[in-house]
Amino acid sequence: MAELTNILHVEDDPDIREIASIALGNIGGYTVVQCSSGPAALSKAPEFVPDLLLFDVMMPEMTGPETLTELRKLKGYENVPAIFMTAKAQPEEVEAYKKQGAIAVIIKPFDVMTLAGEVRGHWEKAIREAKPNVIPFLQKPGKSDARTNNDTPKTAGG
Questions:
Q1: Which of helix, strand or coil describes residue 83?
Q2: For the segment 83-126, what is each residue's pLDDT rounded down to a tens digit?
Q3: DSSP 8-state class, residue 20
Q4: Structural domains of the chain sorted by starting position, each given as residue range(s) with its CATH number in brackets
Q5: Where are the alpha helices (DSSP H) in 64-129?
Q6: What is the CA radius of gyration of the chain?
Q7: Can you give the pLDDT at residue 154?
Q8: Which one of 20, 35, 102, 112 has the lowest number of neighbouring Cβ atoms within 10 Å?
Q9: Please, how many CA atoms are within 13 Å of residue 114, restricted to the half-sphere of its CB?
Q10: Confidence class of residue 128 from pLDDT cuts 50, 70 and 90?
């Protein structure tokens, strides 16, 4: 069975990127590549095919759902599991995000100490439930294991 090790995180707020980096990288032990926008994620995509995509929903230039749609067109990204993060989480909105291809929606603000476990839990649940958009990815041989740096420096507050 595949293992969750590499996460592509797309978030426009530098403070949230920093907190997520601590939660997922330092606490969770994942390799996290962060991008500050949808276009930045699209330019980073050829270098890094992650095990999981983690998107902010509301971003300037391209929303999280728009970024996911564009990434799905790229080789290697067709079936990568995706999670959206948002403060707008009415049940109908959550359902809409799932229809757009998300395996889960994480509500902001999130707990820095539990984010990595929550992400892993959603990942494992998707595997157990054998979601059709996830299983082909997990069985795909020769996934890239490239490790790259963030497109923005990791500094508190900016």
A1: strand
A2: 999 998 889 999 999 999 899 999 999 999 999 999 999 998 88
A3: H
A4: 6-139 (3.40.50.2300)
A5: 64-71, 91-99, 115-128
A6: 14
A7: 37
A8: 112
A9: 9
A10: confident
pLDDT one-digit tens code per residue, 48-62: 989 999 999 999 999
The torsion angles phi and psi of 31, rounded to 5 degrees, stand at -85, 120
What does pTM read for this prediction? 0.82
- Cβ contacts of 48 within 8 Å, gap of 6 or more: 6, 8, 33, 144, 146, 147, 148
Q: Give me the residue label for tokens 């991008």.
A: 35
Residue type, 30: Y
Cα 110–Cα 158–Cα 122 angle in degrees, nearest 5: 25
- Using a 10 angstrom Cβ sphere, with 0-12 exposed, 13-18 middle and 19 or more buried, the burial of residue 110 is middle
